[in-house]
Design goal:
Distance between the termini: 28 Å
Largest sheet: 5 strands, parallel
CATH architecture: 3-Layer(aba) Sandwich
Oligomer: single chain
Strand content: 5-15%
Number of helices: 8
Structural class: alpha/beta
Shape: globular
Bound molecules: thymidine-5'-diphosphate
């Protein structure tokens, strides 16, 4: 089920170091400057329980976490996020921008951890009662570039980021397959384009969505 509410639901996806948070922030600013109400959120996290689950699953300090447990923790965080944050905001007509959603689990746990993309998708459709974005912006990043970008400035890598390059290559391929299977629901952009060009192309696509939903620019 896609989003049936008055709001607009946009997910940003991509490998680590793709620049999703920068682009989420740029889009939020552009829409807010027109007087639109935007909710910027992220996964894992977005709710108090989700933030706890985030540190459980990303910190190195909890020892080994098996792949099924990992997938269930991400899905649990997402269930809370969808029901407590995203659906209520959409029902109020807000524009919800999330940094990661179901596709991240399909790519990282389904393909990266080899749990199977169909199984992980079904788990997450159940967890969110089928709530799907109106648009997914996929910032496609080469895994080697992604590692260089995210470790710039000596930022520490979390449990998932520190996986080997072939893990990140499987994830990249899975994201691209998801986009290819439903092209109308995706905007795929090479992450290495200049920040301003990416922001402009994303805004153009979102403007199209706003216009077709009758909301237009304020
Ligand atoms: P993210 O918050 O995007 O990383 P950061 O803010 O550190 O740049 O995501 C954290 C990590 O969690 C990232 O490596 C991707 C991973 N992840 C999954 O494996 N499955 C999921 O369902 C989600 C939402 C994230």
């Amino acid at each position: 089920m896609t989003n049936q509410s008055p709001g607009l639901f946009i997910a940003f996806e991509g490998g680590d170091g793709a620049g999703k948070s920068t682009q989420t922030a740029r889009l939020a600013e552009a829409l807010e400057s027109r007087g639109l109400t935007v909710l910027r959120t992220r996964e894992p996290g977005g709710t108090p329980i989700g933030e706890k689950l985030r540190s459980l699953v990303l910190d190195h300090g909890h020892g080994h976490i098996d792949a099924h447990t990992e997938a269930l923790i991400f899905a649990a965080s997402r269930a809370a996020h969808a029901s407590q944050v995203i659906r209520p905001a959409l029902a109020q007509g807000q524009i919800v921008l999330t940094d990661r959603y179901i596709d991240s689990s399909v790519a990282y746990q389904g393909a990266g951890r080899d749990l199977g993309t169909d199984a992980v998708r079904s788990l997450n459709e159940w967890a969110t009662s089928g709530l799907q974005p109106d648009l997914t912006v996929l910032l496609d990043v080469d895994p080697v570039d992604g590692r260089v970008r995210r470790t710039a400035g000596d930022a520490a890598e979390d449990r998932l980021e520190s996986e080997a390059d072939d893990f990140h290559t499987r994830i990249r391929e899975a994201f691209l397959e998801l986009a290819a299977s439903r092209p109308a629901a995706y905007l795929v952009l090479p992450a290495h384009l200049p920040v301003t060009e990416l922001a402009a192309r994303i805004l153009t696509r979102v403007d199209g969505l706003l216009a077709s939903s009758g909301r237009g620019a304020a």
